[in-house]
Amino acid sequence: MSKKSGMIPMPTGGSSIVPKLIAGLVGLALFAIVVRHPSEAAGWTTNIFGWLGEVVDGLASFIRQVA
Fold first, then answer.
1. How do the pLDDT tens digits run along the chain, 67 residues long?
2. Sign of the C-alpha dihedral, residues 52, 24, 20, 18?
3. With contact defined as beta carbons under 8 Å apart, do 41 and 34 qualify?
């Protein structure tokens, strides 16, 4: 049998609890907002996607002008 002593062990990603905790709290807060204020959450979502659309349009316009 051959030994595998030449192989270097790969480090395993140490998972910290802090990022998971923050993501969970943000998710819980968003869920609470949607449940308690659904019409306002829908308006905010519409505004956010509108802004994102404007950003994409601006970038496309910039790239067209540069090219």
1. 556 666 676 666 667 899 999 999 999 999 999 999 999 999 999 999 999 999 999 999 999 999 8
2. positive
3. yes
Token pair 């802004």: residue: 51
Kindly report the pTM of this predicted structure: 0.58
Q: Where are the alpha helices (DSSP H) in 1-67?
A: 17-36, 38-66
Instruction: Yes or no: say if 33 and 41 are a contact pair by the CB < 8 Å rule.
Output: yes
Closest by Cα among 61, 57, 25, 36 to 44:
36
Q: b vs e for 34-47, b when ≥16 Cβ sit within 10 Å of the residue's Cβ?
A: eeeeeeebeeeeee
Tell me the three state secondary structure of residue 59: helix
